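Friendly challenge for the regulars: who can give me the C-alpha cells for this chain first? No prize, just bragging rights.
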Amino acid sequence: MPRLAYLGPEGTFTEEALRLLDPTAERLPCASVSAALNAARAGEADGAVVPLENSIEGAITSTLDEFAWGEPLLITAELLLPVQFSLLARPGTEIPHIKRVYTHPAAITQCRAFVARELPEAVVVAAPSTAAAAQEVSLPGSPYDAAIAARIAGEHYGLVELAADIGDRSDTVTRFIKVSRPGPLPEPTGSDRTTLVVFLADDHPGALLEMLTEFSVRGVNLTRIESRPTGDGIGRYFFHFDFEGHIADARVGEAIAGLHRICGEVRFLGSYPRADGIAPQVKRGTSDPEFAEASDWLTRIRAGQV
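First reply, four minutes later:
Bragging rights claimed.
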C-alpha cells in the first residue's frame, strides 16, 4: 500500500483528488504544498498529490516554484477534478442566522454571487484552506457560523450541507498531479503530456522566441506556458511549459534537446498520461518514422552515398 502526502488537512479537494488517483493509498495530510512535496523527497511518503492549476484562478504558484527550486520530483499522473463548493455549518444552523463565514480566498472569489445573494449581511473571513475552515467551524465555541468548502470536508468534520454547488461557475476544474521521486517513467500511451521548467541562459532580444521555436519547428503543441520571477531582480523570469507528447517521441525528445543546447537549465518534470485522453495531431514530417528516415538519410549522405 503506497503512502501519499497531500495538501491537507483532511477534507480538502486535494484529498478527494488523491482518493480518485489512488484509492488504496495511505493518506498523509500536510500543512502546505511545500510540506507535501518535501515529504515525498525525504521518503516520508512514496509520493504526493498537489494542485497545479485551476480553470478560474490559473496556476498554483507555490507548486510551480517548488518544482523550479526544490529537489527533483517527477509527475507520473494527473487528474482534472470538477470543483463544487458547499455551504457547511453545524447541525441546527439556518442560512438566515449566518453572520460570519470562513473559507479559503479562492473560494471567496469563486462564490461571490452566492454570498451576495444569500448572505448579504455576512462577513467572509479568509482561511488557510477550505478544509481548515470546515474544521474550525466544527469546533465548539467557534466564532464562525459556516464554512465554504468541499462536501467531503463536511463528512470529515460532522457539518451539515446547507447549500450545494454554490460556485459562480458550474464548470470550474482544478488540475491535480501525482508526483514521486525520480525513477522509471510511465510508458507512452499516445495521449501524453510532458512538463518542463526552463531557465534562460541570458536575457536578450528574442530569447523567448528561440525557446518557442524549438517546439514549433518540430510540431510540438504547447498546452500551458507560465512565467515566474527568478528573484534575481525585476524582469528576470523562468518558464513552465506543458506540451503534448512523451519524451520517448522523437519530436519531443529533439525539442527538449534543443532547449538544453540554448538555455541555462532545463528541468524535466515528467511525461505522463493526459487526464482528458486527447491525442496530439502529429504534423507531416514530425512522426517517429519520419524522424528515423531522415536520420538514416543523413547517415547515408555523410557516408558519401549520394
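The two ends are 59 Å apart (CA to CA). Residues 136 and 142 are 6 Å apart (CA to CA). Your move, everyone else.
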